[in-house]
UniProtKB/TrEMBL annotation:
GO terms for cellular component: cytosol. Belongs to the UPF0434 family. It comes from the Bacteria. InterPro entries: Trm112-like (IPR005651). This is UPF0434 protein G1H19_00875. It comes from Goekera deserti.
């Protein structure tokens, strides 16, 4: 069970926003949600972008590399 307010998507993000978010790197791949880690993950470059207080931080300098 998630602590997200009712009517919102995973990590408290608006589902419409999640539908358009993409990796800020040059390939612009869609991001998937890792609720347990509170991150948005790029399936192409395997970067994980943190979500802090319901705000996705899509800065390449803030992302961490995950193993493929």
């Amino acid at each position: 069970m998630t602590n997200a307010p009712q009517g919102t998507g995973p990590l408290g993000l608006d589902p419409a926003l999640l539908a358009i978010l993409a990796c800020p790197d040059t390939h612009h791949s869609p991001l998937t949600v890792d609720e347990q880690a509170s991150e948005l993950v790029c399936g192409t470059c395997h970067r994980a972008f943190p979500v802090r207080e319901g705000i996705p931080v899509l800065l390449l300098d803030e992302a961490r590399r995950r193993s493929a």
